[in-house]
Amino acid sequence: MLGTGPDREARMSAFVADTPLKRFGLPDEVAAVAVMLALDEAAYMTGTEINIDGGLLAGSAASPGG
Question: Which Pfam families does the UniProt entry name for this protein (predicted)?
Fold first, then answer.
């Protein structure tokens, strides 16, 4: 997604700046959603998307304090 090359760090910084939580997600945070979906309690959940994107798709409305 962010590619390689000399401008990779700049692309990473720009991506994080556009993310309301201002950081990349941690592997444990993504794994927690996968675990939740594997629970019996999630059996009725069908046909949906769960975005694990730090609020990126929600835009500035999701920014803490802003």
Answer: adh_short_C2
